[in-house]
Amino acid sequence: MTAVAGSAPGAEREADFSLQDLFFSRTDGRGVIQSGNDVFCRVSGFDWSELLGAPHRIVRHPDTPRGVFWLMWQALGRGEPIGAYVKNRTRSGAFYWVFAVVLPIEGGFLSIRLKPSTPILAQVREVYGKVCAQETAGTLDPKGGAAALEAALASLGFANYTRFMAHALGQELSARDTRLGRIADADTARLLEISTALDRVAIEQRRLLGSFEALQSVPNNMRLVASRLEPSGGPVSAISENYRASANGISEKLRRFVTGRDNLCDLVAREASRALFLMGASRVVAEMREQFKGIPPVPGLDYAAESVRLCELAESGEKALRAAMAQALDHATVLSRSSHEIRRQMLGLETIRVLGRVESGRLRDAGGLGATIDQLDMFHSEIRTRLEAILKLSEEIGTAMASNLARPAA
Fold first, then answer.
1. Where is each PAS fold-3 domain found (predicted)?
2. pLDDT tens, position by position, 251-290
């Protein structure tokens, strides 16, 4: 173990390990350690006699919020894998950060952990510090800590925790390859490309909703203009009512499209993110299998059996990955179809807008009707741009998922 570079006397020390090191541990369903590798034993500073049969929290550091572990247990309880940044503590009181990929297996759980090397860790440490402070003050229980963590990640642009852990794992794997001088992994590169597309979908989703919400006031403005220009039931009044009725129909579709739980945009992002995380996890499992080939035997540990478990995990992970990609592809197809449908309905509004422009010309823009139509022009242009962007991105995501599904199973 070495002191942190530049640390003051008495400062907390950081345990030393390399980017090549992968931690491995397996626990039963209660989190009691059943097995581990030499990296886990060496870096943690515990003897095997102290690790085996001990709860995994023996290496837990208080700087990791309890909310993180609440999220872990919730996911594992559903039979789902999960990834998280975790600060651990050695036997001597030093610390070390890892990105942990935790996977459910028969009879318990398996964790493979790598060394973080991206700027994401700095953001996570800041978020964890704030959540830990609230947990320590007694204002947050573990479930509340998890909610606070997700809220903080949302402020950083991640719609949900699945989206964050997929992004983080992809970035960490890519940075690790670069720092170790490895040839860029094609699957990781695709993971990052799709991740970027998902980020852009989320941005366009929020912009589309903002443009549409701003549009809602225009029919009301048009009715006010009509009341000044003509008797009730005149041409401008009719145009404003037709526009309002058509816009209300599109409003409902747009709200299902971009708002509320399980809206189409979020469904695509959720399943695609799940697929991306599984893709990254499969890389970690494959590398761990390779490292097991060179691990010296340890009395009481059956590394041949652990290698078999990892092989089985790779097979089940491939099935889960392909199922998630198929689901993401289905959602992306529906998203594209819905984008086309909303775009078609917007053409109806375009016709009404043109009629309003003609009427404005006939009335020589009396009463400010022209300015109201100008607002429609602006919002329509924005909505068309957002829809086209979402359509293009959803097709990119769908194509990428279809391409991955077409490849032979590993």
1. 37-105
2. 777 777 777 666 777 788 888 889 889 999 999 999 999 9
Within 10 A of 182 (CB to CB), how many other CB atoms are there?
Answer: 9
Name the pTM for this structure. Answer: 0.83
- Residue 374 amino acid letter: D
Residue 198 falls within a domain, yes or no? no
- Contact criterion met (CB below 8 Å) for 100 and 83: yes
Distances (CA, A) of 82 to 48, 115, 201: 26, 16, 23
Are residues 242 and 109 part of one domain?
no
Q: How many CB atoms lie within 10 A of CB 406?
A: 7
Is residue 90 within 8 Å of residue 43, measured between CB atoms?
yes
The pLDDT tens digits for 42-56 are 999 999 999 999 999
Cα radius of gyration (the chain): 27
Range of the domain at 34: 23-117
Which tokens is 81 given?
Answer: 């894998």
In this structure, the answer to whether residues 311 and 269 fall within a common structural domain is yes
Nearest in space to 48 (alpha carbons), one of 17, 21, 22, 25: 25
CB burial of 19-43 (b: ≥16 within 10 Å; e: otherwise) equals eebbbbbbbeeebebbbbbbbbbeb
Angle made by CA atoms 301, 303, 309, in degrees to the nearest 5: 115
Contacts of 347 (CB under 8 A, 6+ apart): none
- Among 138, 169, 193, the domain-final residue is 193
